[in-house]
Amino acid sequence: MKPLYVRVHPRDNVAIIVNAEGLAAGTVFDSGLRLREAIPQSHKVALSGIEQGAPVVRYGEVIGLATRAIEAGDWVREEMLALPQPPPLDELPLATATPPPLPPLEGHTFAGYRNADGSVGTKNILGITTTVQCVAPTVEFAVRRIKAELLPRYPNVDDVVAITHTYGCGVAIDAPGAAVPIRTIRNISTHANLGGWPLVVSLGCEKMQPQRLFPAPSGASLPVLDGEPHVVRMQDADLKGFGSIVGSIMRYAEQRLEELNRRQRVECPASDLVVGLQCGGSDAFSGVTCNPAVGYAADLLVRAGATVMFSEVTEVRDAVHLLTPRAATPDVGRDLIREMRWYDDYLARGSADRSANPTPGNKRGGLSNVVEKALGSVAKAGTSALAAVTAPGERVTSRGLIFAATPASDFICGTEQLAAGMNLHIFTTGEGSPYGLALSPVIKVSSRTALAERWHDLIDVDAGRIATGEATIEDIGWELFHLMLDVASGRKQTWADHWGLHNALAPFNPGPVT
Ligand code: CA
Predict the structure, then answer these.
(1) Alpha helix stretches (DSSP H) within 169-272
(2) Whole domain around residue 365: which residue ranges?
(3) What is the DSSP letter of 23?
(4) Average pLDDT, 10 consecutive residues per value, the chain (514 residues)
(5) Looking at the chain, which terminus has fewer C-beta neighbours within 10 angstroms, N or C?
(6) Short-list 408, 495, 409, 450, CA closest to 289
């Protein structure tokens, strides 16, 4: 393979090396550029001389200021870039360049489980909610027995999942931050893939009582418990011994399995998909291969009338000036700024800032800082208007492109996107992650072919073919779109589901622990 680099934007003065083994000092490109030193794959080469203090430009945006003079052909490394200031939040243009509606895309369907509230499941799962971590091992014990003894009699039910978490007690439950984990667990417990009212296991003495998780109706559209029989309280006087407790959970589980087994897949329009987008273990290729391909697929979903959400506040913060002009209305732009400001304050309370984001793996993959990471990350959001913004753990009710605010941490973001109503998850990765979720299928897309080949039984789609010219962004975007419909229909299985790789739920808790 001849020496190749990828320059994203005509203004860029750096590009990334494509060749899998990297390139040696003295390598000459077709453009005439000669490498002054060896550069690994996905790391940056200077395309022209950059003076000390001058901007280093990638994606047509400033990703840093040169800390020393850089020559054309130099390897531009992390320590050669000073982090620029983040875009100031009070000077952002609001809805000044709202994209016109994309042409509708009709006729695409999938086979899903339609629920009474109009939501559609992509799986048919019995979920058992817990109000506190103390009961998690008991529920997991019961789930093992339910799977072995009951589930085989209910062939239409895909799985039994213990909805466990570290929340519920030992927390300041009246602190403002507590609203986030509580609504997260509530909304996950009523997820479309669980097909109805939750079965709840409580200890009895915990702070997050079942009534707190599912308040009585007050005119608000909160889900409510359908009477007492759905709650098992371990400390209740009539439950005598562990066998009696597990037996009680299993009896209620069997009732729910009877109901769930009657659910049938029916043809649903693609507009019933609620797709969550996320990246994890990103590298410098993510922003030129997998994330733009996912962005193309996001536009297809928006055209089909579906809901598609991107998240990860710290990976949007440095690109927020590219997003507020795209807001559908000034109010949506202000909502986006509200979430950015909330997170700036949250990080400041912990004596941190956005520079805490990139990981050693991101840096090994050629990403110098959070600005470069963010510019690559927002490519997932495609080109459509930003239709709405939600706070962490809130259920998304709008269609189109949504920013659902979450931390960037993979397993916390995935948990919060489940709460937002995600029934299908797209996860892009450069360094590789075995990530998966029990409650929703996770399609994993690699930024580089080398990863897709090494992890041939973990990566579902190889977007690295875009860098080598074997496929276009449009090709991979359509491939993803069709795969989403197949996976949502249960016709194809993701590798994460094949191996049963399901990460623990991790609700975001910005509140204090006592
Ligand atoms: Ca992430």
Answers:
(1) 179-189, 210-213, 242-261
(2) 270-499
(3) B
(4) 92 94 96 97 96 95 96 96 93 96 97 94 97 98 98 97 97 95 96 88 96 70 47 95 97 94 97 97 92 97 98 95 97 98 95 87 91 93 97 97 97 98 97 97 96 97 94 97 98 98 98 94
(5) N
(6) 450
CB-based contacts of 398, cutoff 8 Å, min separation 6 = 307, 387, 388
CATH of the domain at 15: 2.30.130.110
Domain count, the chain: 3
Gap from CA of 2 to ligand 1 centroid (Å) = 33
Residues in the chain: 514
Ligand 1 centroid vs 371 CA: distance in angstroms?
15
What is the pLDDT at residue 123? 98
Give me ligand 1 centre to Cα 149, in Å: 37
Asked if residues 370 and 314 have their Cβ atoms less than 8 Å apart, the reply is yes
pLDDT at 224: 44
- The pTM of the full predicted model, rounded to 2 decimals, is 0.94
Quote the ligand 1 centre to 433 CA distance (angstroms): 10
Q: Which amino acid is at 7?
A: R
* Single residue among 235, 261, 287 that ends a domain in this structure: 261
Centre a 10 Å sphere on the Cβ of residue 127 and count the other Cβ atoms it contains: 25
Cα(331)–Cα(341) distance, integer angstroms: 15
150 shares a domain with 32: no
Tell me, what's the pLDDT at 223? 45
